[in-house]
Amino acid sequence: MSGLVAELESLAPTMAPDAVLTDPDRMAGYRWDRANDPTAGTPVAVVRVSSTEDVQAVVRLAARHRVPIVTRGAGTSLSGGSTAADGCVVISTERMRRIEVDPLTRTCRTEPGLFNAEVKAAAAAHGLWYPPDPSSFEICSIGGNIATNAGGLCCVKYGVTTDYVLGMTVVLADGTVVELGGPRIKDVAGLSLTKLFVGSEGTLGIVTEVVLRLLPAQRPPSTLVATFGSLTDATGAVCEMTRTMRPSMLEFMDQASINAVEDMTRMGLDRSAAALLVIQSDEPAEFALAELEAISEICSRYRASEVFHTDDPQEGEAFVAARRAAIPALERRGSLLLEDVGVPIPQLSDLVDGIAAISANRGVDIAVVAHAGDGNTHPLIVFDPSDTEQVERAQAAYGEVMELAIGLGGTITGEHGVGRLKKAWLPDQLGEEAMELNRRIKQALDPDGILNPGVIF
Amino acid sequence: MSGLVAELESLAPTMAPDAVLTDPDRMAGYRWDRANDPTAGTPVAVVRVSSTEDVQAVVRLAARHRVPIVTRGAGTSLSGGSTAADGCVVISTERMRRIEVDPLTRTCRTEPGLFNAEVKAAAAAHGLWYPPDPSSFEICSIGGNIATNAGGLCCVKYGVTTDYVLGMTVVLADGTVVELGGPRIKDVAGLSLTKLFVGSEGTLGIVTEVVLRLLPAQRPPSTLVATFGSLTDATGAVCEMTRTMRPSMLEFMDQASINAVEDMTRMGLDRSAAALLVIQSDEPAEFALAELEAISEICSRYRASEVFHTDDPQEGEAFVAARRAAIPALERRGSLLLEDVGVPIPQLSDLVDGIAAISANRGVDIAVVAHAGDGNTHPLIVFDPSDTEQVERAQAAYGEVMELAIGLGGTITGEHGVGRLKKAWLPDQLGEEAMELNRRIKQALDPDGILNPGVIF
User: Domain FAD-binding PCMH-type: where (chains A, B) (predicted)?
Assistant: First the structure.
């Protein structure tokens, strides 16, 4: 191991200044991500790479020593996908920040270290739009988005990260550099390997550059906010809407999240509502109006207590911001165990009811926000970390929510990734045959298992 | 081998009547696809499976005997993707025709044997839409579409097959049945294996069921047709349009295809035009008008000789049908070698010019139609199969067109697949590292190489 560190330090002069960190104090910030896994390990070194060549050099050394590599973007993983393993080398992509937008092909070529919001901004400077929008878009890296096949609020109409990845440069477990795809909307030459690496959570290779597809700028959306006296009415309305319409956003907050956000923002949300929906349409003006009127009619039919509509994008954004604020607002109430379960839309009501039952049964607060139009929910289990008995109940509830989702034909993770935290439940969802197929691919690409060990597998 | 045939025949009673064919006359129709590869082999048996269990039983036998398996949908491959190998078992999915549309999740679950048009029709019966639309949509199977990650005319706005595949049942090379994904828009649990099988051309597994994402019915499109006196003007206009707009169709025909179609249809196309664009917008009425007006303005700026606009969907469809008729129309003039090369949009002009140069240099006619908005072109090399010297020149041109595309940063196949016909050029496009990665995945999933041997690899 010390041999590896010495070799990494001898690489340092070929890299940008201060690239190789071995001081425990300086490495501390690279051990955890936002999942705060208490079992996080201690790396032997952190390398802040600046190029594909840097990554290749580090991977070659680590492979020779069979030392684990944990790749890290901005460290915002909510499932422990970028948590350090003991004795690993952390490859941090924070310095890989080049981006080049090509308006002619409506694509951009970007390195993994940029924040999602920076990719959006670079595209916007050319009148273009990169749709995927995790709630953490201002602080999460595009590399992490690729690793988890991240989603967000736009997915109900505009799909997820993989729908925008046309090509990439990836460093394999043995240090081989491979170029896949390119700025071509259609390309079926060879196997769909680009798509395989998207969502692989750093377990198959290290993505050092991506080609992303961009769209023309989104039209300013109109917004509708509706409150409901019952959860069933709210989820019923969602189900009715998604059958025939394509709103550009369809978000859900339950009473606990409404109140947490209201505590923080004092923006006048109805604390008595059982649920609130934030819905947007980005159709051209009159058509947005027509779409939201039809949606308003559905809300009324499902006994909405209040329906508010605005075509002022700023005013609409305030409600979207309220929805995004749910996680920070709930963090004020205690520690969070953050779920990411999804179900087919018609099962949304059963999922939300089932979560309420788990909450009552385990005696822990579970607030629910959701990308309702995708059936992707984020139950947020709030607990007091100093109360070990409560921690246990929270952890029991965490597993039960995933089991509930699996039982409803759903998924344990819609957009955050399996990471370290959810892998115990993965076989229950996938089944033995699909697990074995996952392992076969992993074995083929990383036979020594050095890439992000403990994640997924 | 004869042992295998006897065992297959002993399986027959467990299957629907007349499932196992071994009579050479009855098997003849299963040897070739639309690529008409003269090197097509002779199968030892054709099994017309009706279920996943049938496929599993056949694969287990074939695997035990290490006999190749060629899976066949409707046999419309243009690249030899469903051409029989000598001594193989052909698994024909023509009888696997169940489909179930679920309007609540806006998905359908379908077996591979349905035609693309039948999937569209089943969706339409519920007011829903399955977008991918290869020109052969009335005669190509959805299973073949999955195998090639098929595209079509809608892709410029609505993406390709993989964008609509949410899950599948797949039989692996050893007969293991695996369920992947499901009717969930977001699901990142485990590796993105569904996406890996899409476009794998029957070389990694046999897809026996898929879950497809559907959209609400498309709005009736408005259509604009423009003719140009020069190819460069036409491709320049395309490039200008795709920078800022999202037409729902953007198709190109050159003079040779215009004339071939006019010979067949007598619909009054301008025979003197160097190029014709067929463009559609499916925005809401006035916005379609505005979009097509802006496009019309671009056409004028690029010296269009004539611009015609209609919001009558029937009238518009006549021009789309003309574009689709190009291949049958050119087939009247001789045999065709059908290309599928794509380039980044700004290189479209260089590609079209380069093809003209190859045509002149080799003294063979090459007509070009294109899904211009994707940069995906179909140069059609017309030759007299009885003239061996001309056949050689046509074949030389076939390779040169692919080399041209690769040199322009493009692909040898945008939507038809590599098949048997293009695999010699695949390493030039992908490079040695990506080829090796393709082989590693193939080796992991089909170590004995029994699935569609001779295709891609």
Answer: 39-217
Reference A49, options A2, A89, A5, A77; nearest CA is A89
**Residue at a domain's end among B192, B216, B240:** B216
Are A234 and A346 in a shared domain? yes
- Per the CB < 8 Å rule, is B187 touching A342? yes
Overall average pLDDT of the A257-266 stretch: 97
Cross-chain Cβ contact A186/B342 below 8 Å: yes
Residues with pLDDT less than 70, chain B: 1-2
In this prediction the ipTM stands at 0.96
Any domain includes A116: yes
CA distance A429 to chain B (A): 8
Q: A152 and A9 share a domain?
A: no
Domain assignment present for residue B451? The answer is: no
Q: Are residues B291 and B250 in the same domain?
A: yes
Output the six-digit token pair for B291: 């979009």
Q: Which domain holds residue B116?
A: 99-216
Q: Would you state the structure tokens that stand for residue B391, as one six-digit string?
A: 């056949």
All residues at 6 or more sequence positions from B130 whose CB lies less than 8 Å from its CB, including other chains: B108, B116, B119, B120, B123, B164, B212, B214, B215
Chain A, residues 328-387, CB within 8 A of chain B, namely: 342-346, 371, 374-376
Answer yes or no: do B247 and B324 share one domain: yes
Band (pLDDT 50/70/90 cuts) for residue A353 is: very high
CATH number at residue A9: 3.30.43.10
The answer to the question of residue A228 being in a domain is yes
Per CB-CB distance under 8 Å, the chain B contacts of A77 are: none
CATH code (residue A105): 3.30.465.10
DSSP B198-224: TT-TTSS-EEEEEEEE-EEPPPPPEEE
Judged by CB atoms closer than 8 Å, whether chains meet at A246 and B215 is answered as yes
End-to-end CA distance of chain B: 24
**CATH value at residue B245:** 3.40.462.10
Rounded to a whole number of angstroms, the distance between the first and last alpha carbons of chain A is 24
Buried residues in A124-155 as b, exposed as e (16+ CB within 10 A): eebebbbbbbbbbbeebbbbbbbbbbbbbbbb
Whether the CB of A183 is below 8 Å from some CB of chain B: the reply is yes
The structural domain count of chain B equals: 3
What confidence tens digit (pLDDT) does each residue in A6-56 have? 999 999 999 999 999 999 999 999 999 999 999 999 999 999 999 999 999
Do B285 and B325 fall into the same domain?
yes
Q: Is residue A332 part of a domain?
A: yes
- Residue B100: count of CB within 10 angstroms of its CB: 11
Same domain membership, residue B132 and residue B208: yes
Each residue's pLDDT tens digit, B188-237:
999 999 999 999 999 999 999 999 999 999 999 999 999 999 999 999 99
- Which of residues A187, A216, A245 is at a domain's end? A216
Cβ burial, residue B59 (10 Å; 0-12/13-18/19+): buried
Residue A9 shares a structural domain with residue A132: no
pLDDT for A64 beyond 70: yes
Chain B hits for A104, Cβ within 8 Å: 239, 243, 344-346
- The answer to whether residue A159 neighbours chain B at the CB level (below 8 Å) is yes
The residues, ordered by sequence, that sit 6+ positions from A169 with a Cβ below 8 Å of its Cβ are A52, A177, A178, A179, A180, A207, A208, A209, A210
Name residues 20-79 of chain B within 8 A of A (Cβ).
none
The answer on A279 and A226 residing in a single domain is yes
CA dihedral (A173, A178, A183, A189) positive or negative: negative
Put simply, the answer to whether B414 touches A188 (Cβ < 8 Å) is yes
Q: Which of B106, B182, B431 sits opposite A243 (nearest CB)?
A: B106
Distance CA B127, CA B49 (A): 31
Q: Do B417 and A346 touch (CB under 8 A)?
A: no
Contact A199 B191 (CB under 8 A): yes
**Res B1: pLDDT:** 54
